[in-house]
Design a protein that fits this description.
Helicase, Ruva Protein, domain 3, five-stranded parallel sheet, Rossmann fold, binds zinc ion, 21 helices, alpha/beta, Zinc Finger, Delta Prime, domain 3
Amino acid sequence: MEEQRHIPLPLKYRPNNFAELIGQELMAQTIKNAIKLNRIANAYLLTGVRGVGKTTTARIIAKALNCNEVSLGNSEFQEPCCKCDNCIAISESRSIDVLEMDAASRTGINDIRELIDGVQYAPVSSTFKVYIIDEVHMLSNAAFNGLLKTLEEPPEHVKFIFATTEVRKIPATILSRCQRYDLKRIEPNELSDFFKGVCDKEGVPIEDGALKIISRSAEGSVRDGLSLLDQAIAYSESNISEDLVKDMIGLNDPVEMLNLVSLLMEGQTLGAIEKLNLLYDGGADPLLILRDLIHITHYLTLFKVDAAESLKLSHTDSEFKAFEELAAKLQVGTLSMVWQMLHKGLQEVSDTFSPISALEMLLIRITYTADIPHPNELIEEISQAIEEDDSITSEPEPAQKKASTPKIDPKVQEIIDFFPGAEVETLDN
Ligand SMILES: [Zn+2]
Protein backbone atom coordinates (compact mmCIF):
# COMPACT_ATOMS: atom_id res chain seq x y z
CA MET A 1 0.00 0.00 0.00
CA GLU A 2 1.23 3.46 -0.82
CA GLU A 3 2.04 5.66 2.17
CA GLN A 4 0.27 8.98 1.98
CA ARG A 5 1.63 12.10 3.61
CA HIS A 6 -0.84 13.38 6.20
CA ILE A 7 -2.07 16.88 5.49
CA PRO A 8 -3.39 18.52 8.67
CA LEU A 9 -7.13 19.13 8.37
CA PRO A 10 -6.91 22.93 8.94
CA LEU A 11 -4.62 23.10 5.92
CA LYS A 12 -6.51 20.59 3.82
CA TYR A 13 -9.86 22.31 4.32
CA ARG A 14 -8.66 25.90 4.26
CA PRO A 15 -11.13 27.86 2.13
CA ASN A 16 -9.83 28.75 -1.33
CA ASN A 17 -12.57 31.09 -2.46
CA PHE A 18 -15.51 33.10 -1.13
CA ALA A 19 -17.93 30.19 -1.52
CA GLU A 20 -15.86 28.02 0.80
CA LEU A 21 -15.62 30.71 3.45
CA ILE A 22 -18.09 29.78 6.18
CA GLY A 23 -20.26 32.31 8.00
CA GLN A 24 -19.01 35.48 6.25
CA GLU A 25 -21.55 35.68 3.43
CA LEU A 26 -22.24 39.41 3.70
CA MET A 27 -18.60 40.41 3.45
CA ALA A 28 -17.98 38.00 0.57
CA GLN A 29 -20.96 39.35 -1.36
CA THR A 30 -19.91 42.98 -0.82
CA ILE A 31 -16.38 42.39 -2.06
CA LYS A 32 -17.55 40.37 -5.05
CA ASN A 33 -19.92 43.20 -5.97
CA ALA A 34 -17.10 45.73 -5.66
CA ILE A 35 -15.07 43.70 -8.17
CA LYS A 36 -18.05 43.36 -10.53
CA LEU A 37 -18.55 47.14 -10.44
CA ASN A 38 -14.82 47.90 -10.43
CA ARG A 39 -15.18 49.90 -7.26
CA ILE A 40 -12.40 48.39 -5.21
CA ALA A 41 -11.29 50.16 -2.06
CA ASN A 42 -7.62 51.15 -1.66
CA ALA A 43 -7.44 49.47 1.70
CA TYR A 44 -9.46 46.77 3.45
CA LEU A 45 -9.41 46.22 7.17
CA LEU A 46 -10.46 42.79 8.41
CA THR A 47 -11.19 42.55 12.10
CA GLY A 48 -12.22 39.62 14.26
CA VAL A 49 -11.09 37.29 17.00
CA ARG A 50 -8.15 34.95 16.64
CA GLY A 51 -8.76 32.02 14.30
CA VAL A 52 -11.83 33.46 12.61
CA GLY A 53 -10.10 33.43 9.20
CA LYS A 54 -8.71 36.92 8.64
CA THR A 55 -5.50 35.90 6.87
CA THR A 56 -7.33 33.33 4.78
CA THR A 57 -9.88 35.98 3.77
CA ALA A 58 -7.08 38.43 2.93
CA ARG A 59 -5.55 35.85 0.56
CA ILE A 60 -8.92 35.16 -1.05
CA ILE A 61 -9.37 38.89 -1.68
CA ALA A 62 -5.85 39.07 -3.11
CA LYS A 63 -6.69 36.14 -5.41
CA ALA A 64 -9.94 37.74 -6.52
CA LEU A 65 -8.04 40.92 -7.39
CA ASN A 66 -5.21 39.21 -9.24
CA CYS A 67 -6.73 36.05 -10.73
CA ASN A 68 -5.96 35.78 -14.44
CA GLU A 69 -9.56 34.75 -15.10
CA VAL A 70 -11.06 37.79 -13.41
CA SER A 71 -11.47 41.04 -15.27
CA LEU A 72 -12.54 44.00 -13.19
CA GLY A 73 -15.94 45.45 -13.94
CA ASN A 74 -17.10 42.12 -15.37
CA SER A 75 -20.65 41.51 -14.23
CA GLU A 76 -20.18 37.74 -14.67
CA PHE A 77 -17.54 37.58 -11.95
CA GLN A 78 -18.16 34.99 -9.25
CA GLU A 79 -14.94 33.63 -7.79
CA PRO A 80 -11.17 33.50 -8.27
CA CYS A 81 -10.41 30.41 -10.40
CA CYS A 82 -7.84 28.94 -7.96
CA LYS A 83 -6.13 27.28 -10.95
CA CYS A 84 -4.17 30.06 -12.67
CA ASP A 85 -0.54 30.84 -11.83
CA ASN A 86 -1.48 33.91 -9.82
CA CYS A 87 -4.09 32.09 -7.73
CA ILE A 88 -1.75 29.20 -7.01
CA ALA A 89 1.17 31.49 -6.14
CA ILE A 90 -1.02 33.45 -3.70
CA SER A 91 -2.36 30.27 -2.07
CA GLU A 92 1.21 29.14 -1.53
CA SER A 93 2.30 32.58 -0.25
CA ARG A 94 4.91 32.96 -2.98
CA SER A 95 3.39 35.56 -5.30
CA ILE A 96 5.87 38.34 -6.04
CA ASP A 97 3.04 40.84 -6.23
CA VAL A 98 1.36 39.91 -2.97
CA LEU A 99 3.55 40.92 -0.06
CA GLU A 100 2.68 39.68 3.39
CA MET A 101 4.02 40.99 6.67
CA ASP A 102 3.27 40.00 10.25
CA ALA A 103 3.29 43.21 12.25
CA ALA A 104 3.44 41.21 15.48
CA SER A 105 7.10 40.47 14.86
CA ARG A 106 7.99 43.47 12.67
CA THR A 107 6.69 46.58 14.33
CA GLY A 108 9.17 49.30 13.40
CA ILE A 109 9.30 52.05 10.81
CA ASN A 110 12.16 50.31 9.01
CA ASP A 111 10.06 47.18 8.58
CA ILE A 112 7.32 49.24 6.94
CA ARG A 113 9.84 51.11 4.78
CA GLU A 114 11.28 47.82 3.64
CA LEU A 115 7.83 46.45 2.86
CA ILE A 116 6.53 49.41 0.88
CA ASP A 117 9.88 50.21 -0.65
CA GLY A 118 8.78 49.18 -4.13
CA VAL A 119 5.31 50.62 -3.88
CA GLN A 120 5.75 52.89 -6.94
CA TYR A 121 6.83 50.04 -9.24
CA ALA A 122 4.11 48.28 -11.20
CA PRO A 123 3.23 44.67 -10.35
CA VAL A 124 5.23 42.03 -12.19
CA SER A 125 2.62 39.53 -13.31
CA SER A 126 -0.70 40.66 -11.88
CA THR A 127 -3.14 43.55 -11.90
CA PHE A 128 -2.34 44.76 -8.40
CA LYS A 129 0.43 44.88 -5.88
CA VAL A 130 -1.31 43.72 -2.73
CA TYR A 131 0.17 44.38 0.71
CA ILE A 132 -1.22 42.16 3.45
CA ILE A 133 -0.30 43.28 6.96
CA ASP A 134 -1.39 40.92 9.70
CA GLU A 135 -1.90 42.10 13.30
CA VAL A 136 -1.56 45.65 12.02
CA HIS A 137 -2.38 47.15 15.45
CA MET A 138 1.10 46.08 16.62
CA LEU A 139 2.84 48.65 14.43
CA SER A 140 4.69 51.48 16.20
CA ASN A 141 3.47 55.05 15.85
CA ALA A 142 6.36 55.86 13.53
CA ALA A 143 5.47 52.83 11.41
CA PHE A 144 1.83 53.92 11.20
CA ASN A 145 2.95 57.37 10.11
CA GLY A 146 5.21 55.86 7.48
CA LEU A 147 2.31 53.79 6.22
CA LEU A 148 -0.10 56.71 6.26
CA LYS A 149 1.77 58.63 3.58
CA THR A 150 1.29 55.79 1.10
CA LEU A 151 -2.24 55.11 2.26
CA GLU A 152 -3.26 58.72 1.64
CA GLU A 153 -2.27 58.62 -2.00
CA PRO A 154 -1.55 55.08 -3.10
CA PRO A 155 -0.50 54.43 -6.70
CA GLU A 156 -3.39 53.00 -8.70
CA HIS A 157 -1.87 49.52 -8.81
CA VAL A 158 -1.55 49.23 -5.02
CA LYS A 159 -4.06 47.69 -2.59
CA PHE A 160 -3.70 47.17 1.14
CA ILE A 161 -5.36 44.49 3.24
CA PHE A 162 -4.95 44.82 6.99
CA ALA A 163 -5.97 42.24 9.55
CA THR A 164 -6.31 42.82 13.26
CA THR A 165 -7.69 41.34 16.44
CA GLU A 166 -7.66 44.74 18.20
CA VAL A 167 -9.19 47.41 16.05
CA ARG A 168 -9.23 49.99 18.87
CA LYS A 169 -5.44 50.18 18.80
CA ILE A 170 -5.39 51.41 15.21
CA PRO A 171 -5.08 55.20 14.77
CA ALA A 172 -8.19 56.95 13.45
CA THR A 173 -6.18 58.38 10.54
CA ILE A 174 -5.56 54.83 9.30
CA LEU A 175 -9.08 53.59 10.07
CA SER A 176 -10.69 56.38 8.09
CA ARG A 177 -8.84 55.27 4.96
CA CYS A 178 -9.94 51.65 5.13
CA GLN A 179 -13.08 49.79 4.22
CA ARG A 180 -13.74 47.80 7.34
CA TYR A 181 -15.18 44.30 7.64
CA ASP A 182 -15.86 42.64 10.97
CA LEU A 183 -15.51 38.91 10.53
CA LYS A 184 -17.93 37.27 12.87
CA ARG A 185 -17.41 34.23 15.02
CA ILE A 186 -18.91 31.22 13.35
CA GLU A 187 -22.00 29.81 15.06
CA PRO A 188 -21.71 26.34 16.65
CA ASN A 189 -24.38 24.88 14.37
CA GLU A 190 -22.58 26.17 11.24
CA LEU A 191 -19.36 24.66 12.56
CA SER A 192 -21.12 21.39 13.38
CA ASP A 193 -22.50 21.10 9.84
CA PHE A 194 -19.12 21.88 8.34
CA PHE A 195 -17.23 19.41 10.55
CA LYS A 196 -19.82 16.71 9.77
CA GLY A 197 -19.10 17.28 6.08
CA VAL A 198 -15.36 16.98 6.71
CA CYS A 199 -15.86 13.70 8.61
CA ASP A 200 -17.94 12.33 5.74
CA LYS A 201 -15.24 13.24 3.24
CA GLU A 202 -12.57 11.69 5.47
CA GLY A 203 -14.73 8.57 5.94
CA VAL A 204 -14.74 8.88 9.72
CA PRO A 205 -17.96 8.17 11.66
CA ILE A 206 -18.61 10.72 14.41
CA GLU A 207 -21.31 10.85 17.09
CA ASP A 208 -23.60 13.86 17.20
CA GLY A 209 -22.55 14.68 20.78
CA ALA A 210 -18.87 14.59 19.78
CA LEU A 211 -19.57 17.04 16.95
CA LYS A 212 -21.34 19.42 19.31
CA ILE A 213 -18.52 19.34 21.87
CA ILE A 214 -15.87 20.01 19.22
CA SER A 215 -17.92 22.85 17.72
CA ARG A 216 -18.45 24.36 21.14
CA SER A 217 -14.77 24.10 22.09
CA ALA A 218 -13.73 25.72 18.81
CA GLU A 219 -15.29 28.98 20.07
CA GLY A 220 -16.16 30.29 16.64
CA SER A 221 -12.95 29.30 14.89
CA VAL A 222 -12.95 26.83 11.99
CA ARG A 223 -9.21 26.37 12.33
CA ASP A 224 -9.33 25.50 16.04
CA GLY A 225 -12.22 23.11 15.45
CA LEU A 226 -10.42 21.36 12.58
CA SER A 227 -7.31 20.95 14.74
CA LEU A 228 -9.44 19.30 17.43
CA LEU A 229 -11.12 17.10 14.85
CA ASP A 230 -7.72 16.07 13.47
CA GLN A 231 -6.63 15.14 16.96
CA ALA A 232 -9.86 13.20 17.58
CA ILE A 233 -9.40 11.21 14.38
CA ALA A 234 -5.86 10.31 15.41
CA TYR A 235 -7.05 9.48 18.94
CA SER A 236 -9.91 7.21 17.93
CA GLU A 237 -9.62 3.72 16.53
CA SER A 238 -12.68 3.98 14.32
CA ASN A 239 -15.68 5.93 15.57
CA ILE A 240 -15.36 9.35 17.23
CA SER A 241 -17.53 9.07 20.30
CA GLU A 242 -18.71 11.74 22.72
CA ASP A 243 -16.75 10.19 25.60
CA LEU A 244 -13.57 10.07 23.57
CA VAL A 245 -13.78 13.76 22.72
CA LYS A 246 -14.48 14.72 26.32
CA ASP A 247 -11.54 12.65 27.41
CA MET A 248 -9.28 14.14 24.75
CA ILE A 249 -10.13 17.77 25.42
CA GLY A 250 -9.89 17.18 29.16
CA LEU A 251 -13.30 18.73 29.31
CA ASN A 252 -14.98 19.08 32.65
CA ASP A 253 -18.12 17.00 32.35
CA PRO A 254 -20.97 19.55 32.25
CA VAL A 255 -23.10 17.29 34.41
CA GLU A 256 -20.36 17.17 37.08
CA MET A 257 -20.05 20.96 36.84
CA LEU A 258 -23.81 21.28 37.23
CA ASN A 259 -23.60 19.35 40.49
CA LEU A 260 -21.00 21.82 41.71
CA VAL A 261 -23.21 24.77 40.73
CA SER A 262 -26.12 23.15 42.54
CA LEU A 263 -24.05 22.79 45.73
CA LEU A 264 -22.94 26.42 45.45
CA MET A 265 -26.47 27.74 45.10
CA GLU A 266 -27.65 25.65 48.04
CA GLY A 267 -24.87 27.10 50.20
CA GLN A 268 -23.33 23.68 50.83
CA THR A 269 -19.76 24.72 51.54
CA LEU A 270 -18.23 21.38 52.43
CA GLY A 271 -19.91 19.58 49.53
CA ALA A 272 -18.74 22.25 47.06
CA ILE A 273 -15.14 22.10 48.32
CA GLU A 274 -15.10 18.31 48.11
CA LYS A 275 -16.50 18.40 44.58
CA LEU A 276 -13.97 21.03 43.54
CA ASN A 277 -11.08 18.99 44.87
CA LEU A 278 -12.38 15.91 43.13
CA LEU A 279 -12.34 17.79 39.81
CA TYR A 280 -8.91 19.27 40.55
CA ASP A 281 -7.42 15.88 41.45
CA GLY A 282 -8.84 14.56 38.19
CA GLY A 283 -6.60 17.05 36.37
CA ALA A 284 -9.00 19.96 35.76
CA ASP A 285 -7.48 23.42 35.62
CA PRO A 286 -8.91 25.81 38.28
CA LEU A 287 -9.28 28.65 35.78
CA LEU A 288 -11.15 26.38 33.34
CA ILE A 289 -13.39 25.17 36.16
CA LEU A 290 -14.20 28.79 37.00
CA ARG A 291 -14.92 29.64 33.36
CA ASP A 292 -17.20 26.62 33.09
CA LEU A 293 -19.02 27.72 36.25
CA ILE A 294 -19.53 31.17 34.74
CA HIS A 295 -20.82 29.69 31.48
CA ILE A 296 -23.17 27.33 33.28
CA THR A 297 -24.55 30.08 35.53
CA HIS A 298 -25.21 32.12 32.41
CA TYR A 299 -26.91 29.18 30.67
CA LEU A 300 -29.09 28.47 33.71
CA THR A 301 -30.18 32.11 33.72
CA LEU A 302 -31.14 31.82 30.05
CA PHE A 303 -33.45 28.95 31.00
CA LYS A 304 -35.13 31.19 33.56
CA VAL A 305 -36.00 33.77 30.91
CA ASP A 306 -37.01 31.22 28.24
CA ALA A 307 -34.04 32.11 26.04
CA ALA A 308 -32.24 28.78 26.18
CA GLU A 309 -33.41 27.26 22.89
CA SER A 310 -30.13 28.13 21.14
CA LEU A 311 -28.19 26.03 23.66
CA LYS A 312 -29.62 22.93 21.97
CA LEU A 313 -27.27 23.63 19.07
CA SER A 314 -24.13 23.41 21.17
CA HIS A 315 -25.14 20.93 23.87
CA THR A 316 -26.03 17.28 23.87
CA ASP A 317 -29.60 16.30 24.76
CA SER A 318 -28.63 14.94 28.17
CA GLU A 319 -26.71 18.13 29.00
CA PHE A 320 -29.67 20.27 27.94
CA LYS A 321 -32.07 18.27 30.10
CA ALA A 322 -29.77 18.48 33.13
CA PHE A 323 -29.60 22.29 32.73
CA GLU A 324 -33.36 22.52 32.47
CA GLU A 325 -33.92 20.51 35.63
CA LEU A 326 -31.50 22.50 37.75
CA ALA A 327 -32.74 25.84 36.41
CA ALA A 328 -36.26 24.99 37.56
CA LYS A 329 -35.02 24.92 41.16
CA LEU A 330 -33.20 28.26 41.07
CA GLN A 331 -34.10 31.95 41.19
CA VAL A 332 -32.87 34.57 38.73
CA GLY A 333 -31.70 36.77 41.62
CA THR A 334 -29.48 34.05 43.07
CA LEU A 335 -28.10 33.12 39.64
CA SER A 336 -27.34 36.72 38.85
CA MET A 337 -25.54 37.24 42.17
CA VAL A 338 -23.50 34.04 41.85
CA TRP A 339 -22.57 34.97 38.26
CA GLN A 340 -21.29 38.36 39.42
CA MET A 341 -19.25 36.86 42.21
CA LEU A 342 -17.76 34.21 39.93
CA HIS A 343 -16.92 36.84 37.36
CA LYS A 344 -15.22 39.07 39.90
CA GLY A 345 -13.20 36.05 40.99
CA LEU A 346 -11.67 35.53 37.51
CA GLN A 347 -8.91 38.02 38.18
CA GLU A 348 -8.14 36.56 41.61
CA VAL A 349 -7.84 33.03 40.26
CA SER A 350 -5.71 33.96 37.24
CA ASP A 351 -3.37 36.32 39.13
CA THR A 352 -2.28 34.15 41.99
CA PHE A 353 0.53 31.69 42.69
CA SER A 354 -2.10 29.20 43.82
CA PRO A 355 -5.19 29.25 41.58
CA ILE A 356 -6.82 26.30 43.33
CA SER A 357 -6.76 27.98 46.76
CA ALA A 358 -8.08 31.22 45.25
CA LEU A 359 -10.93 29.28 43.65
CA GLU A 360 -11.59 27.48 46.92
CA MET A 361 -11.82 30.81 48.75
CA LEU A 362 -14.15 32.14 46.09
CA LEU A 363 -16.49 29.16 46.31
CA ILE A 364 -16.54 29.38 50.12
CA ARG A 365 -17.47 33.04 49.83
CA ILE A 366 -20.27 32.21 47.42
CA THR A 367 -21.72 29.40 49.52
CA TYR A 368 -21.79 31.70 52.54
CA THR A 369 -23.49 34.46 50.57
CA ALA A 370 -25.95 32.01 49.02
CA ASP A 371 -26.84 31.13 52.60
CA ILE A 372 -28.22 34.61 53.31
CA PRO A 373 -31.99 35.07 53.03
CA HIS A 374 -33.63 34.58 49.70
CA PRO A 375 -34.82 37.73 47.86
CA ASN A 376 -38.45 36.86 48.54
CA GLU A 377 -37.75 36.55 52.26
CA LEU A 378 -35.97 39.88 52.12
CA ILE A 379 -38.90 41.54 50.44
CA GLU A 380 -41.16 40.25 53.18
CA GLU A 381 -38.79 41.63 55.79
CA ILE A 382 -38.66 44.99 54.05
CA SER A 383 -42.45 45.12 53.75
CA GLN A 384 -42.69 44.45 57.45
CA ALA A 385 -40.16 47.16 58.20
CA ILE A 386 -42.27 49.61 56.22
CA GLU A 387 -45.47 48.57 57.99
CA GLU A 388 -43.81 49.09 61.36
CA ASP A 389 -42.52 52.40 60.09
CA ASP A 390 -46.11 53.34 59.18
CA SER A 391 -47.49 52.47 62.60
CA ILE A 392 -45.05 54.74 64.44
CA THR A 393 -45.62 57.70 62.14
CA SER A 394 -48.14 59.87 63.99
CA GLU A 395 -49.18 62.39 61.34
CA PRO A 396 -50.33 61.02 57.99
CA GLU A 397 -48.10 61.91 55.05
CA PRO A 398 -48.59 61.55 51.29
CA ALA A 399 -48.15 57.89 50.32
CA GLN A 400 -45.45 58.68 47.81
CA LYS A 401 -43.18 60.32 50.30
CA LYS A 402 -43.53 57.46 52.73
CA ALA A 403 -42.62 54.86 50.17
CA SER A 404 -39.46 56.68 49.25
CA THR A 405 -38.11 56.78 52.79
CA PRO A 406 -38.67 53.38 54.36
CA LYS A 407 -36.33 52.59 57.23
CA ILE A 408 -34.37 49.59 56.05
CA ASP A 409 -31.70 48.02 58.17
CA PRO A 410 -28.35 48.97 56.52
CA LYS A 411 -27.39 45.28 56.60
CA VAL A 412 -30.54 44.33 54.71
CA GLN A 413 -29.88 47.16 52.24
CA GLU A 414 -26.41 45.75 51.61
CA ILE A 415 -27.93 42.39 50.78
CA ILE A 416 -30.54 43.98 48.50
CA ASP A 417 -27.71 45.63 46.56
CA PHE A 418 -26.32 42.17 46.03
CA PHE A 419 -29.47 40.99 44.28
CA PRO A 420 -29.85 43.01 41.12
CA GLY A 421 -32.79 40.79 40.11
CA ALA A 422 -34.79 41.24 43.32
CA GLU A 423 -38.22 42.66 42.67
CA VAL A 424 -38.40 45.50 45.12
CA GLU A 425 -41.50 46.98 43.49
CA THR A 426 -43.65 44.32 45.25
CA LEU A 427 -43.16 46.58 48.27
CA ASP A 428 -46.26 48.50 47.28
CA ASN A 429 -48.49 45.41 47.29
ZN1 LIG B 1 -7.08 32.42 -10.90
